[in-house]
Structures are given as C-alpha cells and as structure tokens.
What we know:
Blueprint: E1 2-8, E2 12-19, E3 22-30, H1 31-37, H2 41-44, E4 50-55, H3 58-70, E5 76-79, H4 99-108, E6 116-121, E7 124-130, E8 136-143, H5 145-155, H6 177-204, E9 214-217, H7 226-229, E10 233-234, H8 238-252
Parallel strand pairs: 1-4, 4-5, 6-9, 9-10
Antiparallel strand pairs: 1-2, 2-3, 6-7, 7-8
Helix pairs in contact: 1-3, 4-8
Amino acid sequence: MKVLCIDMGNTRTHCAVIEDMRVLEAWDESTRCFADSFCYETFKKIGLDGISWCSVVPQEAAKLKRKFEDEFFGIKVFHLNCQTSPINLDVKIPEQVGQDRIAAAIGAGEFFKPPYIIVDMGTAMTIDLVDASGAYAGGAIAPGLHAFTAYLSERTAQLPAIDPSMADIDLVVGKDTLEAMYVGSVKGFCRMVDSIILDMQNAHFGTENASAKTIFTGGSLSVLPKKWLAERKLEVNLANIGLYMAFENFINKK
Length: 254
C-alpha cells in the first residue's frame, strides 16, 4: 500500500510517500502555501492508495480539508486527530493534543514497545510519553532551540547570533561571550531535555533506561550539538510513519 503522508506544522509541512513502511520519498514545503498549491494530479502517476494527514494550523487545515472534500481523488483520505487516533489519549482534554504529537507517538511504536518517549524538535519542542499500557500519557512543551538561541541576539545590542550545532556541551563555564552563550543557551536547552526524560524514567520506566527508548525527530535536529545527539535514535520522518500506521489501522477497520 502506497500512501502520501502530510504533517502540516507551524512553519513547514513535511510530506512523505510511504509504501509498506518504507519511506520512498520525503520533502518539506511552506505551510502557508501548501493547501492552496496542493494538486493531486502531481501524484497520480505514482499510483497512491491513499492520503493520511494531520495539522497543527487550524486555518490551513481547514483549507486542505475543503480541497479534499471538493475534489474527488478516487482514493481514501484519512485525517488523524483525537477522534480518529488508533491509540488511547490518556489526557484531560484530548482535543488539545497536537495532531503531530499523536502521529509521532504512533510512529514511535514501530521502533519500541511501550513505554517510550518522543522528542520533537521544531518551532516548539515537545517531549511526549507513551506509557506501559500503550496509551499516549501526555508530555511537556517548551520553546524550540531557535527561541533559546536567537532571543538574546535579537533582544540585545552586543550578543551575537550563534550556531547551536557548534556548541561544545562539555564546557562548564564560558571563557568568552560565545562560549558563555553556548553554555547558557545550547547546553541549558539540552540539559532541560535530559532532565525531563529522567523525570519520566523515574515515574514510568521502573528499571528500564528511558534514554534507550527515546526517539528524536523534528526540523531542528540538524542544528543540535552532534555530540549530544550521538548514539540517540533519530527519525526525521517519524510523524509521517505514524500517519501511515494510522491509515493502515483505518483501512483494516473498514
């Protein structure tokens, strides 16, 4: 089965064509332009069996939904949200859970048995837990890495812009302004992530090592310190994989 998976984020829309859990092609487009420019004719030649999508931008999601409703493609179109999720959402208000977070939580199940953790590095940084029962159990939301690193240069007269990927996370104190910003902004961001993962481990993993069952995804992975990311599980197409799995579940329930 070949499915076009569309993860519409705040800034970028990540798309992938997936067949039998293999990502055949993946690309990004501007979210602001995606719905208006979407054309199914572009994909007819590759023989899609369906489209699976999610969005965290209500206005653009409404445009895309109208396009799917107004144009008959002759294939199944599945919208992943809190009502259609194949995994239980054990939270106070399921409608508030970002559809991308649901998709990533489903996708991580391809790599781990519960419990496991998903870290999504985008415009916002989210850390989510799927508990031992296999339910999405909630998580944490914080500003993304760009907010941590760009805020000081944008709001002060003398502090420079920095490249987070160049940060030495072994530094304890900075000996110049650049190093001090690496310690405070980049290392501070990484330590925040590690601390939240450790809290989840203590509360939900028993004797298991949560770091070994944590998967990282998102558009900011490329600018994170490489040494900090070393040996961690990375999957840039995680939400799209989850969308594919949710589509399979949707078809099999018919």
